[in-house]
Design goal:
About 30% of the residues lie in helices and about 40% in strands. The chain has about 80 residues and is α+β, with helices and mostly antiparallel strands. It has a single domain, classed as Sporulation related repeat (Alpha-Beta Plaits), CATH 3.30.70. The two termini are about 15 Å apart.
Length: about 80
């Protein structure tokens, strides 16, 4: 890896809200259940994300196991890690 390499982390988005409060409530429920949940602000939305994965394959595996718990479906995204 060079000093100019950009690393990405794959995350699962499970919800998107125009206001922050419902996103905070959903994050709290997932965190209380032992998952790593957080809010990612993007394009004036508050998106609820789960986990951080180093590969899309790992992300897909988790999503396949958990899809029934995702009330509104899910999508996989990438964020910069550096």
């Amino acid at each position: 890896m060079t000093k100019h390499s950009i690393l990405f982390i794959a995350i699962i988005f499970i919800a998107s809200y125009e206001i922050k409060k419902p996103a905070q409530e959903k994050v709290a429920r997932w965190n209380e259940s032992g998952f790593q949940a957080s809010i990612v602000e993007a394009n004036n939305y508050f998106r609820v994300s789960l986990g951080e994965y180093v590969s899309i394959k790992d992300t897909d595996n988790f999503a396949d196991r958990m899809w029934e718990a995702f009330e509104c479906g899910y999508w996989i995204g990438k964020i910069h890690s550096n």
